[in-house]
């Protein structure tokens, strides 16, 4: 997807690490959050916008709007960091025809009915299936907490 410099799964969405290490390290001018629930909650949107670094725009939108905007080339000339909570969102984008080549998994907290597969990443069986489906579709899935860390092929954690 033209204009997107990193696509990250991080259930904290916009927080200190995304704002300071990822956004500034990648020199992005926009952080995009795709989350249907947050996009329809003005309080959550306001909190996320406050967490974004000064001078970096935010887009907190639904999957449907994201697909429409990306297909229309709205972000082609920008440097966008895309953040989602769950792999299903990215699988939906791929199935809608968006060309996602690579995904970085950062943090997926331990929740009910999850299994920890690596430090700071716990998956439900559905999330595991979604990641496996993305890999099967040719998407490179890596694990990397911060930009300075080495990228690790996420498939090794699924064995």
Summarize the structure.
With about 160 residues, the protein is an alpha/beta fold.
Strand order of the largest sheet: 3-2-4-1-5-8-9
Q: What is the average of the pLDDT values?
A: 95
Task: Specify the biggest β-sheet.
Answer: 7 strands, mixed
Q: How far apart are the termini?
A: 29 Å
CA radius of gyration: 15 Å
Tally of separate helices = 6
3D shape: globular
Which range best describes the helical content: under 10%, 10-25%, 25-40%, 40-55%, 55-70% or over 70%? Answer: 25-40%
Number of DSSP strand runs? 9
Order of helices and strands: EHEHHEHEHEEEHEE
Q: How much β-strand is present in the residues? A: 25-35%
Are there runs of 5+ residues with pLDDT below 50, and where? Answer: none
Class from secondary-structure proportions: alpha/beta
Task: Characterise this structure.
This protein has helices spanning 16-25, 36-39, 42-51, 63-71, 87-95, 125-136, and strands at residues 4-10, 30-34, 57-61, 80-84, 102-107, 115-118, 121-123, 140-143, 152-153. It is built from 6 helices and 9 strands. The two termini are 29 Å apart. A hairpin with a 2-residue loop joins strand 6 (115-118) and strand 7 (121-123). It has a 7-stranded mixed beta sheet, sandwiched between helices. It is globular, with a radius of gyration of 15 Å. Helices cover 34% and strands 26% of the residues. It is α/β, with parallel strands linked by helices.
